[in-house]
From TrEMBL:
Name by which UniProt lists this protein: Transporter
GO MF term set: symporter activity
Pfam families the UniProt entry points to: SNF
Keyword Membrane among record annotations: yes
Signal peptide region: none
Family the entry assigns: Belongs to the sodium:neurotransmitter symporter (SNF) (TC 2.A.22) family.
Gene Ontology CC terms, in alphabetical order: membrane
Main location: membrane
Location of the protein in the cell: Membrane
Keywords: Membrane, Symport, Transmembrane, Transmembrane helix, Transport
Membrane topology annotation: Multi-pass membrane protein
Presence of keyword Transmembrane helix: yes
Organism: Glycocaulis alkaliphilus
InterPro entries, A to Z: Na/ntran_symport, SNS_sf, YocR/YhdH-like
Length: 451
């Protein structure tokens, strides 16, 4: 099927679409962010609230975004614009697509730098450079890495070359073919790592930590953290799911697909905890170590355990796959837009925007302040604003009958629940994420959310 111009191809198989969509959701957030956010917010008590937020906040937005994309079969911006036209609404609503696409671009600019760190750790683990080193020395290795700008840019460059190469091959020959290989490999390796942890580390402590709720740990900040993690983990608000939805055939049950995607992403996040926390507890490490858990705390554990070189390598290969499947989806968003509005073609669009993103990423590698700015703009402003606009657009602007047509595979009960959530609960919840993110960016404490 031809790819180019304004007309999109369709996924070769539903399995291919699900692997691509799950791969876009299963990113470094499942490995890097989820474990330490859970650790900082009471473990199991946090997870219970997180699951509620996934079902009642993230899933409805995902269904909405897939509906917009499949309805219009264009890029994220074009899809929102066309649906607005068909709904008799002003074309200005296309700003929802612009905001979401901008958020995704900002994410990829610094995300590819972090993914470069992961690639570096794959090679360092595989060559045994951490083995036998003390905790302090291992922690220092990470500081050395991020302080070596040339090395960081080199790893960042390698990662972007792979990302651009896959996207330039097309939706079916590039993205779908890659994810149908990578994602089954990812699931197999993750399960193997959990089994290894069960026999060699402290799985009992991990299970107690993850599945024994302590509701005394819960406060307003816990709810906000769970809400934000659910929103960002599923990958809504970044235009990915609108773009991926545009390649779906009319026969696909969007509600069913969205449920599978959110379920798989949530399962991976929890299973990742089962792969990580047994080692954390076995070596008396801090489960609430923050971002350092990923690049300093866990490598310290791998450095001390039998076969740690191979276990650590497998862990960072898993993280690399998660990062890659997310990065190709982020780049595909802007490539789809370029195919509609330029004569670059797919390869030219992938290379052109890949180079721009690479250059901005180099700036992030040089400047920690710029890195933080990109992180703040995307996570605190553009993604939640994009999600909020899509919720309002599909809940209040687009006619009920049009949305019912796109969600025809859902029962009347499911559709009515979705419509209630997308009109009332979701906008309020996402607005809280947006307000809290902006307040945090400017150093403002919201009443009741200190902690």
């Amino acid at each position: 099927m031809a790819i180019g111009g304004g007309a999109h191809s369709t996924w070769g198989t539903r399995f291919g679409f699900l692997m691509a969509a799950i791969g876009s959701s299963v990113g470094l957030g499942n490995f890097w962010r989820f474990p330490y956010v859970a650790g900082e917010n009471g473990g199991a008590a946090f997870i219970v609230i997180y699951l509620v937020c996934v079902v009642f906040i993230a899933l409805p937005i995902l269904m909405a975004e897939l509906s917009v994309g499949r309805h219009a079969r264009r890029s994220a911006v074009g899809s929102v614009q066309k649906m607005a036209f068909n709904a008799g609404a002003p074309g200005i609503w296309s700003v929802a697509g612009w905001v979401a696409m901008a958020g995704g671009i900002f994410i990829l600019c610094f995300y590819s730098v972090v993914a470069g760190w992961v690639v570096a750790y794959v090679f360092q683990m595989a060559t045994g450079q951490f083995m036998g080193l003390s905790t302090d020395v291992v922690a220092g290795r990470f500081e050395e890495l991020i302080g070596d700008t040339n090395a960081v840019i080199g790893w960042h460059t390698a990662f972007m070359i792979v990302t651009v190469g896959i996207v330039s091959l097309g939706v079916t020959k590039g993205i779908e073919r890659a994810v149908t290989i990578l994602m089954p490999l990812f699931f197999t390796m993750l399960l193997a790592l959990v089994i290894y942890a069960a026999f060699t580390a402290d799985m009992g402590a991990a299970l107690a930590y993850l599945f024994t709720p302590d509701f005394s740990e819960i406060g307003p900040q816990t709810f906000l953290a769970a809400l934000g993690q659910a929103f960002f983990s599923i990958g809504v608000g970044s235009a990915i799911m609108i773009t991926y939805g545009s390649y779906l055939p009319r026969t696909d049950n969007l509600a069913g697909s969205a449920t599978i995607i959110t379920g798989a992403d949530t399962l991976v996040a929890i299973v990742a905890g089962l792969a990580i926390f047994p080692f954390v507890f076995a070596f008396a490490l801090d489960p609430a170590a923050g971002p350092a858990l990923f690049f300093q705390t866990l490598p310290s554990a791998f450095a001390q355990m039998p076969a740690g070189q191979y276990v650590g390598t497998a862990f960072f290969v898993l993280a690399f796959i998660a990062a890659l499947t997310s990065s190709i989806s982020l780049l595909q968003v802007v490539v789809a837009f370029a195919e509609e509005h330029t004569d670059f073609g797919r390869t030219g669009s992938a290379v052109f925007f890949g180079v721009i993103i690479w250059l901005v990423g180099c700036g992030a590698a040089f400047s920690g302040g710029f890195f933080d700015l990109l992180d703040t703009l995307s996570g605190s402003v553009f993604l939640p604003l994009g999600g909020l606009l899509i919720a309002v657009f599909t809940g209040w602007v687009v006619a009920r009958s049009l949305m019912r047509h796109e969600l025809a595979g859902a029962s009347n009960l499911v559709f009515n629940i979705w419509r209630f959530l997308i009109r009332f609960l979701v906008p309020i919840a996402v607005f809280l994420i947006l307000a809290a993110g902006i307040a945090s960016a400017f150093g403002v404490s919201l009443p009741g959310l200190q902690g």
